[in-house]
Structures are given as C-alpha cells and as structure tokens.
Amino acid sequence: MSASHTPHDAQIVAQFTRWAKPFSELAIHAENESMAQTLAACAVSKDMKVLDVACGPGIVACELARIGAHVTGIDLTPAMIEQARLRADNMGVTVAYHIGNALHLPFPADSFDRVVTRYSFHHMQDPAKVLAEMVRVCRPNGRIIVIDATPAPECQTGYDRAETLRDPSHTSALTLDQLLSLGNKAGLSPAMIHQYRLESHLEDQVAPEDWTALQAMFAEDIAGGQDRLGMGAWQDSNGIHFYFPISIVAWSKT
Questions:
Q1: Could you tell me the pLDDT band of residue 4, with boundaries at 50, 70 and 90?
Q2: Domain boundaries in the chain?
C-alpha cells in the first residue's frame, strides 16, 4: 500500500480485506452462465495478452488464463491478491498479479490485447479516468470490456442508497447510457452490449451490523411493489432475494 492512497482507497481496502475470502467463495461470482457471457465478450484466444483491472480474487483472470491467454491481474487490496494467487495455484494456471491502483496502471501504453474489469466501476470515484487508463494500456484494434451493475435511470438513486448501505465503498452505479457515454468520450467504438440479471440472496452479502437496516429497506421496497431499488426483490421462505442488473459493454480501440 502507498501513502498516496485516498481515504476512499483506504475504505475499499478495508472493505475488501474484510470480505476477501467470503467474496472469493461466493458462488454467484463464478456462476457458469454469467462467466460464459464474460468470456464471450472478452473474445480471448490463446497467447493474447490480457489485463484484468480490479481483479479481486482472480475469478475472471484465472478463467482467461485457462483459455491460454497471458493474463495480468491488478487490484488495490492485498488480501484480494492473496486470494487470487491461491485460486491460480489451485486451478494450475499462471497469472501475473500486482497490487496497484486502477487510476495509475503500472504498464506501458499499448501493452495488452484485451483489458477487462468486472463489478468494479461502482467503486470508482472517477470511472472516466479509470477507463482512460484502460484505453491507454490497450493496443490499437484491441478490446476494452467493462462489466458492472447498471440500474435503470429511475432506480439509480434507490439502487445506490441500498448498495452504499450494503457496501460503504460503493460510490455510484452508472446507468447503461452513462457507461456508453464514457466510452464515446474516450473515443471508443462499441463492439457489443449485453445485459443480464444476476440473482443473489441478501444475507450472503451483508455484514451483520447492516442487516437490520438493509432488511427493512428491502422489505419496504417489496411491500410497495414499485421496485424503487431496481433490484426486483422478493421474499420467500429462504429470505430476501434480489437481482443485480448487469451490463457488459465491449469497445474496440481504433
């Protein structure tokens, strides 16, 4: 870690140090269908050089390495990189992992054929700058892929309110139009857009001290029947369930 880290960086590191092992073991992060969609968007072939930005516990990085790509992963949180290295060892794949900041990627320009990040932009205080760094290190005719939650515009405020309570390192989830606008301003050409919903169980991703307030927020949303959180929440005998509204956007760098 560096003394130059911002208070928000410190909050991210604290949050994901606490959650590193549970996060790495949570089934939805390696769920087969969404992983297949991620790999399809990356369109990686053997021997390509790929960078996974904010790689977390290396779930995407290791799958890309299994295809035969030369994969590098970078994340701000040392505990996440520790989990990522364990995952690579357990899978028998090779990934070069680094601890570092997505705002200042420690790689030369035009270094990678593919640059991907998954479920990270909602933690970024300046996602436009992160995207600019991803573009910088991607070679011409390469591909940049961003996968993240993109609530409907009318639900963005409610979604952010729920997510900030669940995860204090959350900043704001961009709408799909806002995400596409970032790519347009960066001079990128969309190569594909795909949307899906990822089902989750509320109790799986909530700290005990936040459970009562978050449960009340979701219960109110379910009772109101208007889905103001944009998560399609429902309750059954197993508790509260909801969907993350995910978009995959892949751009070509000209």
A1: low
A2: 7-153+168-199+245-252
What is the maximum span of the chain, computed from C-alpha positions, in angstroms?
53
Answer whether 102's CB lies under 8 Å from 71's CB: no
> Tokens 């309570």 sit at which residue?
165
| pLDDT recorded at residue 99 | 98
Task: State which amino acid sits at residue 13.
Answer: V
Give me 148's structure tokens.
């993240």
Quote the percentage of the chain above a pLDDT of 90.
90
Distance (Å, rounded) from C-alpha 162 to C-alpha 155?
11
Residue 19 Cα distances to 15, 16, 222, angstroms: 6, 5, 27
Question: Domain 7-153+168-199+245-252 belongs to what topology?
Answer: Rossmann fold (3.40.50)
Tracing tokens 């219960």 back to the chain, one arrives at: 219
Tokens of 205: 């991703």
pLDDT(3) > 70: no
**Residue pLDDT, tens place only, 124-144:** 999 999 999 999 999 999 999
Strand ranges (E), the chain: 49-53, 70-75, 95-99, 112-118, 138-149, 189-201, 234-236, 239-252
Rg of the chain on CA atoms, in Å: 18
Instruction: Please report the sign of the dihedral spanned by the C-alpha atoms of residue 160, residue 115, residue 196, residue 26.
Output: negative
Question: pLDDT tens, 170-189?
Answer: 999 999 999 999 999 999 99
Q: Both tokens of residue 183? A: 């790519």
- Name the one residue in this structure whose structure tokens are 């960078």: 51
pTM: predicted TM-score of the whole model, two decimal places: 0.95
